[in-house]
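Hi R.,

Here's the chain you asked about this morning:
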Amino acid sequence: MHILDDNWSSNLYDSHAFGVTCLSWEPFITEDLAIRFVSGGNDNILKVWSINRMKNTPERIFNLEAHTEAITDVAWFNDSNGRSTIASCGKVIIR
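And the predicted structure, written out as tokens:
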């Protein structure tokens, strides 16, 4: 969703097969002025995206398929040296 001239509009994008459960924006705009974010979903996949400023659409950079359950939370952290860390967690049932 975005707002332009006091009007809200939204677009749907093909992102996660079973819905997005969490999202985190990269804390700082990089030198190339890209806007990036990471999303997690019920499909057990983390996806890193970059906003194409010319088209104003997200483009998937890569997928990380390490989870075995739905992803419930994600956070993106950049340290003072410019290194990025993405942390994620999922639902685990202990019996």
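Residues 26 and 37 are 5 Å apart (CA to CA).

Let me know if you need anything else.
M.
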